TrEMBL record:
Keyword flag Protein biosynthesis: no
GO MF term set: kynureninase activity
Catalytic activity: 3-hydroxy-L-kynurenine + H2O = 3-hydroxyanthranilate + L-alanine + H(+); L-kynurenine + H2O = anthranilate + L-alanine + H(+)
Name of the gene encoding the protein in the UniProt record: kynU
Cross-referenced Gene3D superfamilies: Aspartate Aminotransferase, domain 1, Type I PLP-dependent aspartate aminotransferase-like (Major domain)
Xref: SUPFAM superfamilies: PLP-dependent transferases
Domain of life: Bacteria
UniProt keyword terms in alphabetical order: Hydrolase, Pyridine nucleotide biosynthesis, Pyridoxal phosphate
InterPro entries: Kynureninase, PyrdxlP-dep_Trfase, PyrdxlP-dep_Trfase_major, PyrdxlP-dep_Trfase_small
Record pathway: Amino-acid degradation; L-kynurenine degradation; L-alanine and anthranilate from L-kynurenine: step 1/1; Cofactor biosynthesis; NAD(+) biosynthesis; quinolinate from L-kynurenine: step 2/3
Name of protein: Kynureninase
Family: Belongs to the kynureninase family.
Amino acid sequence: MSETSTDPGTDLRDRAAALDAADELAKLRERFTLPDGVVYLDGNSLGALPAGVAATTADVVARQWGELLIRSWEESGWWTAPERIGDKIAPLVGAAPGQVVVGDSTSVNLFKALVGGARLAAPGRTKLLVDSATFPTDGYIARSAARLAGLTVVPVDPSRAAEAMDADTAVVLLNHVDYRSGRLHDLPALTAAARAAGAVVVWDLCHSAGALPVGLDEHGVDLAVGCTYKYLNGGPGAPAYLYIAARHQDAFDSPLPGWNGHADPFAMTPDYEAARGATRGRVGTPDILSMLALESALDAWDGVAVEAVRAKSLALTDFFLACVAAYVPQGLVESVTPAEHEHRGSQVSLRCENAREVMGELIARGVIGDFRAPDVLRFGFTPLYVGFADAERAARTLGHIFG
Ligand SMILES: Cc1ncc(COP(=O)(O)O)c(C=O)c1O
């Protein structure tokens, strides 16, 4: 609190204004279309609308499809969009070009990565280790992939995963940031442990890509998947991506060998011959409308360093936690997001009683976060368009609800 003020609200509002004024990323908010009067803290579920997407999408529909018709597969670059957009995502996850391919949902890419990963693993290994707190779809897909590949699923707490990896471990599936708690797992150390055990590691980047540096190449990750509708702002149902490290591409054997992943799709041969590179991760005809909306959305990243985004994300979540501590009477909410920066993603999860109703009330008052059963309020901080005044208002509104 400042020396002259006795009202924590005045003090925190002043601090928010000063932090926003000093924020070099603040001007990026202009790259998004956000409704007036709303504090949007749900970008960890559905990112906001980047400003250019509506016009791009209108052009794709009216001109590329409406006028150029089938010529657009060549002339508008539709056919090569999965690799081209993959290369646009690559720097955001620390990958050199040629290793990321866009298409399908995260769930489908998980299936490709897990079965493909099992086929890369040394023969005779029997276990598929899965983050025990994982987002449900990862667990469902892992169990089916394990059945197909003849592996046994072993749930592991990521904090103990390194100890659980042994000579029987074929594949390890981990979430970089836990969707419920916002806990950031140690990708470099866990990847190194998997490699030391001779296992193939698959990372789910849904809650980290676009929020913090990932370093896929630097840390020697084998395979990774992620969605694009959260921190990458690709839009509802935007296609996901698959990363296949260059060193694995020649051996990567997709369990979904559709014609788009064929070395010569228009030869229309009865036999499958996988394309070179990440292209072999493709399956069928790409969903061009969503994909080109995503391509336009990624322009919001022009000239933006992920490291700067991470620094702002941590400052935002620190400030939000400080505001919650000041505004919400003690004992009514408990943060389940780690306080230590090295363990925190870009969201704050608060546990409280009647969380569903509390979130409903927050949304009614213009602060949009979300609720995860049974008792968690989630607040996602997307540094490209969220400011410190937003964090202060969200916490103050929460305080009013409890007050
Ligand atoms: C960590 C994680 N993995 C997977 C998914 C599911 O992705 P999709 O619906 O694209 O299959 C989500 C969705 O929110 C997620 O948060």
